[in-house]
Specification:
6 helices; single chain; mainly alpha; 117 residues; 0% strand; 434 Repressor (Amino-terminal Domain)
Amino acid sequence: MLDMIKLKGTQPDMIANNLSPFEPTHPGELILDELEARSLTQAKLAESIGIKPSLLNEIIKGKRAINTEIALLIEAAMNIPAELLLNLQRDYNMQVAKSDVSFMKRLSSIRNIAAAL
């Protein structure tokens, strides 16, 4: 539909639907916000769901991805939907990959080869 609409002076990457956040949101940020809102510590949450505090801390700091099992444990403990956490992780991974210039060049090269087949 955008092809049919000619917007003078508007670049496709500046249209709202095509924008990506400057910094992607890692699900750990949401978990940290919830901990703070509930006055809970990371150590208490880690203990209640049976994981090491260091593992939870790495997720909260965005150093480690959240997986399905941990998302389900957090859902049980904090009532944050596991699907929400996993979708945030997926979106985060996608945004990080798309912001990697060397990976995007590689992807473009593969697309060009595939188009020629």
